[in-house]
Amino acid sequence: MSESYDRGLVEDFGRWTEFSAGMWAWVFHKFTGWVLVGYLFTHISVLSTSLQGAQAYNNTLSGLESLAVVRILEVGLLAVAVFHILNGIRLLFVDLGVGLEAQDKSFYASLVLTGVIVVASVPTFLTGAF
Amino acid sequence: MAERYSSFRSGSTTWLLQRLTAAFLVVVLAFHFFNLHFVTHAYNIEFAGSQARMSEVGYYLTMVLFLVTATFHGVNGVYNALVNQGIEGKAKRAAQIVLGLAGLLLVVQGIRVANTLAGF
């Protein structure tokens, strides 16, 4: 039967040099997960301005989108979401018993593909930001 | 048998739900991002456009299901991360209550937003 894997304390940052690909994948998946769940609450809060009417909703969204820092943060959000999706697919396959022996390569592939998608999306996200 | 690398206890209902919601979210989160950043640019989003999208029953139902699954996946993920760090007893119970309530409030508020945009 399956066994659990003792990772030790990730909070012990002195251990980072010992980290393997699988450990980095685990750390990045946790980090991106925390960011995404935090964003979900923020997202619904912002969209809740619709309850005050069309004007409040439009003013809030256009006000936020006019800030360059928000546009840059959106690129960051894309990076976080794309990595979480790609690494999530990797985890689903590993859970199904597929690709455990190549889990380090699929992690590197997730990173590279995330980088490519994010870089290619920068013009779309930053149009008119500056 | 291969060693299993996961923060979640295998065999539980929440373990299965975390994976089922993941499979759904992979598709819908990608669609959501693509739809509201590439098809319609985020800086062009206005109430009228959101209203038009949300007025379609299929879109409304997809977004509500997206909200419910994303909330479950996120809140359950945070809970499992905390359990993985070793919280037990009262701290574990408190995490269940706080995260459960936060998730419930988020879903209720999200549905209120969806209903407003759909014109219900």
Describe this structure in words.
The complex is a heterodimer of chains A (130) and B (120). The termini of chain A are far apart. The longest helix of chain A has 28 residues, at 68-95. Helices cover 70% and strands 0% of the residues of chain A. Chain A contains four helices and no strands. Chain A has helices at 21-47, 54-65, 68-95, 103-126. Chain A is elongated, with a radius of gyration of 19 Å. By secondary structure, chain B is mainly alpha-helical. Chain B has a single domain, classed as 3 helical TM bundles of succinate and fumarate reductases. Chain B has helices at 13-39, 47-54, 57-84, 89-118. Chain B is elongated. The model of chain B has no long low-confidence stretch (mean pLDDT 93). The interface between A and B is large, with 45 and 43 residues.
Overall number of structural domains of chain B: 1
Most extensive interface, residues per chain?
A: A-B, 45 and 43 residues
CATH classification, class level of chain B: Mainly Alpha
Q: Report the uncertain regions of chain A.
A: none
Average pLDDT confidence of chain A is 91
Which overall shape of chain A is indicated by the principal axes computed on the Cα atoms? elongated
Rounded to the nearest angstrom, the radius of gyration of chain A is 19 Å
Order of helices and strands of chain A: HHHH
Helix content of chain B: over 70%
- Count helical runs of chain A: 4
Share of β-strand residues of chain B: under 5%
Shape of chain B: elongated
Total helices of chain B: the number is 4
How would a textbook summarize the main sheet of chain A?
none
Classify the secondary structure makeup of chain B into a structural class.
Answer: mainly alpha
Give Rg of chain B in angstroms.
17 Å
- Enter the CATH topology name of chain B: 3 helical TM bundles of succinate and fumarate reductases
